[in-house]
């Protein structure tokens, strides 16, 4: 990892932890965000998930569908590639 990436990773992780400590986000949301941070910066993995998250963010309306997507993502085991792929296909259909 390059110096700039490490600095970005450290700052983002610190911000996420701070939000959780101040109870702006839940513990589940913190774990999700730290996992995504790890996937993007450390492992450089799950590009399809990143594309989906960008699409979802652009279309987010705070609807019941968005709540379902969020709950699914928060419960997802990102170490299980098959589950990630299956759930991603389902979530794409919801968008």
Describe this structure in words.
This protein is mostly helical. The protein has two domains: 1-44, no CATH class; 46-95, no CATH class. Helix content is 79%, strand content 0%. The protein contains five helices and no strands. It has helices at 3-21, 27-43, 47-59, 64-75, 81-94. The longest helix is centred in the first third of the chain and has 19 residues, at 3-21. The protein starts with a helix and ends with a helix. The mean pLDDT is 92.
What labels describe this entry?
globular, mainly alpha, 2 domains, 5 helices, 95 residues, 79% helix
**Number of separate strands:** 0
| Number of helical segments with 4 or more residues | 5
Helix content: over 70%
How many domain modules? 2
Give the SSE string.
Answer: HHHHH
pLDDT < 50 stretches:
none
Q: What percent of residues are in strands?
A: under 5%
């Amino acid at each position: 990892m390059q110096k700039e990436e490490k600095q970005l990773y450290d700052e983002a992780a610190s911000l996420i932890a701070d939000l959780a400590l101040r109870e702006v986000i839940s513990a589940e949301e913190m774990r999700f965000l730290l996992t995504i941070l790890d996937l993007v910066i450390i492992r450089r993995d799950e590009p399809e998930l990143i594309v989906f998250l960008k699409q979802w963010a652009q279309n987010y309306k705070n609807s019941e569908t968005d709540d379902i997507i969020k709950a699914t993502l928060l419960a997802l085991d990102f170490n299980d590639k098959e589950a990630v792929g299956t759930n991603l296909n389902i979530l794409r259909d919801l968008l």
